[in-house]
Automatic annotation (TrEMBL):
Taxonomic path: Bacteria, Pseudomonadati, Bacteroidota, Flavobacteriia, Flavobacteriales
The family this protein is said to belong to: Belongs to the group II decarboxylase family.
Protein name: Aminotransferase class V-fold PLP-dependent enzyme
Single GO cellular component term: cytoplasm
Top-rank taxon: Bacteria
TM ranges: none
Pfam families the record matches: Pyridoxal_deC
Protein's UniProt keywords contain Transferase: yes
SUPFAM superfamilies named among the record's database cross-references: PLP-dependent transferases
One term of GO molecular function: transaminase activity
Organism, as annotated: Aequorivita vitellina
Length: 478
């Protein structure tokens, strides 16, 4: 090919904006963000009945049209921000909130602008050191000492997947042994555990769902009995899964007892702390989560307990060699990147290229330090106790004493069935929209739950919630 055969289209420079163009774009997005953040106190936590499509939804589709940033932002506001759930609201008490702190968003911007390759130490020693420092910090916080390792993931589900795959690999559960291998969990285990078991080919294991006590924690006696029976029957107990804060009610399993049982029966002991593990930053949390350091693997979600925007989980494995053995691969084209004695994130997870996700957690910690997170989490614990007390005062039944920051409760008026009245309360709250809660089923009964974990949730939000619950109850009593 000759030079003058080359015929490039003019648009090939369009994706490289000039400094002026960048500033114009950035200023508009920045004003939009500021407007959004400033409007949060008036914004709803939930936009009821906004799931239907509208004519303007054709704008979601991609074609060759060019649009102004103003048009795009208008559409984004109307068809994304003003629909469904608003996880940035302090009124969000559904599922497990977190909020999404601003400094983390800024870090994401920097991460994307600089686009460091966080999967390989060779490509970005700095990004990897940053990620390692966070894994190290989180591991020490859990009480791990030496030889542990981990990975920054996109969330708790992938963190669970990595941990359980490591357990499977380390315990050498393969084709011929799968149907005789036993996994122990409870009805309070998060469904991402079952999903992970399915993905890693352990669906056909024997999965024992062990009975719960009145606080929705695993019954140690029922577990011990089941393990004994399974061993007598020639099965191999290999994996024990515990909750360090269940999603439904925040239940924390008796971790020390479970660790002992796991050790006696040579099981891998996995602790799901996606919701609860960051309470290790608080005194009450450390008391509740005693024994977490005995786990072979732990997961935790900074997009919950550290209030980061969605997209941040952590998996920790007590012996990093087990994590590496389960995930390391080599490829000819990657030969330059291998450094003897140095793990890269790609050796410790399914990902190769990955988001530079360390920065979104590292920057807030560097700017504000660790203590402020402790203070916020303590506030959430206090608000939870306050809410549970007030709920009883206004005539609701609290189902179990909250261990961390989730309150499960029901209305129990005589004239209605349980599910009917609690569905009505749920609808009342969701239609109002200033507060959002979600429901679950406990002991076959529809149950309401409030999870207090957004950094923006303060006493005024809980008081508003209580007012709404009073009104909902009153509307049913007439
Ligand atoms: C206890 C628990 N484990 C795992 C998960 C899954 O985490 P993610 O939604 O980050 O994938 C959740 C999510 O709420 C959870 O509460």
């Amino acid at each position: 090919m000759k030079d003058n055969d080359l015929n490039f289209h003019n648009s090939i420079f369009e994706l490289e904006e000039t400094a002026l163009e960048r500033k114009a774009l950035f200023d508009k997005v920045n004003s939009f963000s500021e407007e959004f953040l400033e409007s949060l106190p008036e914004r709803k936590a939930f936009h009821y009945n906004t799931h239907q499509t509208t004519d303007s939804d054709s704008f979601f589709s991609i074609n060759n049209e060019k649009n102004s940033i103003e048009n795009v932002l208008d559409f984004f506001k109307e068809r994304v921000l003003d629909t469904g759930l608003n996880p940035t609201s302090g009124g969000h008490l559904g599922y497990i909130p977190g909020g999404g702190i601003f400094s983390s968003a800024i870090a994401d911007y920097l991460a994307a602008i600089t686009n460091r390759y966080a999967g390989e130490f060779y490509a970005s020693p700095g990004a990897v050191r940053m990620g390692d420092a966070l894994v190290n910090w989180a591991g020490k916080l859990m009480g791990y000492t030496e030889g542990f390792g981990g990975n920054l993931t996109s969330g708790g589900s992938i963190a669970n997947l990595i941990a359980l795959h490591t357990a499977k690999h380390h315990k050498n559960i393969t084709g011929s042994t799968i149907t005789k291998s036993v996994v122990y969990c409870t009805a309070q285990s998060h469904h991402s555990i079952n999903k992970a078991l399915k993905i890693i080919g352990l669906e056909d294991c024997i999965i024992r769902v062990i009975a719960l006590d009145a606080q929705f924690r695993i019954s140690v006696k029922a577990l011990e009995d089941q393990v004994r029976v399974d061993e007598q029957d020639g099965f191999t107990p290999f994996l024990l899964i515990a909750n360090a804060g269940s999603t439904d009610v925040g239940a924390v399993d008796p971790l020390v007892s479970l660790a002992n049982i796991a050790k006696t029966h040579k099981m891998w002991f996995h602790v799901d702390g996606a919701y609860g593990a960051f309470f290790m930053l608080t005194e009450k949390g450390r008391e509740k989560l005693k024994g977490i350091e005995l786990a072979d693997s732990i997961i935790l979600d900074p997009h919950k307990g550290m209030f980061l925007p969605y997209g941040s989980g952590i998996v920790l494995v007590k012996n990093v060699k087990h994590l590496a053995a389960a995930h390391s691969y080599t490829a000819n084209y990657m030969r330059d990147a291998y450094i003897e004695g140095q793990y890269s994130p790609s050796n410790l997870s399914p990902e190769l290229s990955k988001h530079f996700r360390g920065l979104r957690m590292w920057l807030p910690l560097k700017l504000y330090g660790q203590q402020v997170f402790t203070d916020y989490l303590n506030e959430k614990l206090q608000l939870t106790t306050y809410l549970a007390q007030k709920l009883v005062e206004i005539g609701y039944k609290v189902i179990c004493e909250p261990e961390l920051s989730v309150v499960a409760f029901r209305l129990e008026l005589k004239q209605y069935s349980n599910d009917e009245q609690n569905k009505k309360v749920l609808d009342f709250i969701q239609k109002d929209g200033r507060i959002f809660i979600s429901s679950t089923v406990l002991n076959n009964k529809l149950t309401l739950r409030a999870a207090i974990l957004s950094f923006r949730t303060h006493k005024k939000d809980i008081d508003l919630f209580l007012e709404l619950l009073k009104e909902a109850k009153l509307s049913l009593e007439v």
